[in-house]
Amino acid sequence: MTNENILIGSAIIGQSGGPSSVINASAYGVIKTALESEYITNVYGANHGIKGVLDDRLMDMSKEDPAELELLLHTPSSALGSCRYKIAEPEKDDTDFKRILEIFKKYNVRYFFYNGGNDSMDTCNKINRYLKSVGYECRVFGVPKTIDNDLFGTDHCPGFASAAKYIATSVMEVSRDSQVYNTGMVTIIECMGRHAGWLTAAAALAGEKGDGPDLIYLPEVDFVMEDFVRDVKRVYNEKHNCIVAVSEGVHYADGRFVSEAKTSGTDGFGHAQLGGLAARLAAVVKEELGVKVRGIELSLLQRCAAHCASATDIEESFNSGKTAVESALAGESGKMVGFRCDRTDGYRCEYVLFDLEKVANFEQKVPLEWITEDHAHVTDDFIRYCAPLIRGDLVVPMEDGLPRFAKLKKVFA
Amino acid sequence: MTNENILIGSAIIGQSGGPSSVINASAYGVIKTALESEYITNVYGANHGIKGVLDDRLMDMSKEDPAELELLLHTPSSALGSCRYKIAEPEKDDTDFKRILEIFKKYNVRYFFYNGGNDSMDTCNKINRYLKSVGYECRVFGVPKTIDNDLFGTDHCPGFASAAKYIATSVMEVSRDSQVYNTGMVTIIECMGRHAGWLTAAAALAGEKGDGPDLIYLPEVDFVMEDFVRDVKRVYNEKHNCIVAVSEGVHYADGRFVSEAKTSGTDGFGHAQLGGLAARLAAVVKEELGVKVRGIELSLLQRCAAHCASATDIEESFNSGKTAVESALAGESGKMVGFRCDRTDGYRCEYVLFDLEKVANFEQKVPLEWITEDHAHVTDDFIRYCAPLIRGDLVVPMEDGLPRFAKLKKVFA
After folding, report:
1. What is the ipTM of this complex?
2. Looking at the whole model, is its pTM more than 0.90?
3. Which one of A189, B56, B308, B309 is least enclosed by Cβ atoms within 10 Å?
């Protein structure tokens, strides 16, 4: 590091948006690296993301037991607390930004790391823009997290692979379970993913082991109920069994969600709260085919199943946090850490920086050419892309047969 | 073994009823021990339980790769195929029994092992009674399996602990996930168990780690909707969060299942098919409290999650199969293998035999004194009973980040 890059001050790490199994591994990458840096004077965790900054609720990370902090590698959900807070455009309403600046000055915050998905990268980008506009020197970094795998630019997102592994594992197990009787059964498994079908596509990994779904429906293409019923009927008549993986976000050609009768509430960003699709499709199949059907919604389980996380995902999540701190210390700012991967000869992952301006609010979807022509499965290209991400030997710290999660003291500054 | 106990002939192992994560560990205990015995000439797996015997579909277990057979320890669901076939009382209708005898004579079957729950023990008992009545020498053994943990006499049932571990683990993870926002949330987790609340009670194990359910509702006591709403309201007002574990089988004082609007179909034994309770209770809470609620049905996942099985359960399941064969070779018949456990100084499990006549068709429920007075949680006695069952170091055979399940050739005799 050259002298001119040296910036001395405090760091804040915040977590935002929906949690994942490994979001804390990224936070730990930031916290550990920041605590070890000679230029970072204090490391604060914002309680409930940017809301914690606005409310002056900062937790002193140096007060935590290092062994507990290390358990963050295997602790699901956002240990610092998360939020879904839509921040304004600084050019239109700078109220929140003035408050953020006030807090940053109070604690001499010169490093800001924000750990989240699309909306969080947007928040991060706006803070960066505002701080620059008022000439406050602060290095702002996005540390990506999203099981949805929909962040622009990066090969994949931390959190995706662990959810993918959980989904593939569960599909394998349910597939075995659904075949014990010779009486025939259709099983419909609903996976998360509002606009991008990455998670649902990951069910296909189970197929590599011979226990995969027969049909896969993604939100990248329009859902046609008649085609769905025809597909299920065909598979069932052939095999006397049928496993379907379907994304919560599948929609008709006019844009209506198939599950939409259930979209009663919305989250803080105005997204519809989906759910109940599996049960709905199960009812249709029962009505049309008259066979035994079961709908299974993987629900929250798929985003918090740390006991089944991908070891590769944990490593990459940690490293993305670490890289963010190291890059910030080296003088970079306004960036998000991402991955560039090479699968030509095994699998190699390189950590690269993307402009926050470019990644914010752009959703990366499953390429259409990775969806089969009948819109009811994915191609081998997807398997080649996804398979390396779930590999690695996972060792979960256990106590009495149950996972041992981090217990933070949360000492407020 | 004394000479008079020697009986030379073939053995059949069949699996029946709902599968579990470890039912194949029991089957493997039978198969391996039987294959190694000098008195057992052939080891057959009945394809789909007693239906496989009636249909003369017997698979030659000696034709399987021993390494694949060993993977049965970690392969969920019933690898031989299961059935839900209600067999008649032999004294009233002996059609099936005559056919069974015909098959037994064809293959010189002198050992019959039946791996299942309550209804399977009943089938096993009837076969034993019939064969005795016609003077056909055959040693008949029940090898217990039921995640419901409701078999009479035995301390607990193989399969229960693995489902219990999965439930406790999932509750821990969901509990963490439900607390990331400071906006408040009620989460309702529905567990299996029609008449016995063992599985739902197991959610309490998560509480020992600080991430347990606030409220637990079992079918052993009547469910009162007003009390449920009052309990949730109290917890939510106190903690701004509430985790509920509820059994699919909770019912009102008049016996109606709380989920009953959903009981459209029945299984082969005449049981109602339950499901949808979590969503129903979530709707009530939303209506009454107006807060964010999520209903999660653990569904099939809890009975097939071999990736999260209890190492103790796998060992005990294997040993119960092994003990069945050893006891049969020693001359015993008409018995079920069960467990007698001592928890006074650590945990010790002894394998004992119970008369099939006594265990068939009797459901063992959670003792009422293990349910708290307000009917909304379980006592420490339950924890002391359950905690040792989920311990042990699990090592799951993995390949490419996914479990490696047994692939049987299924060579028919």
Report:
1. 0.95
2. yes
3. B56
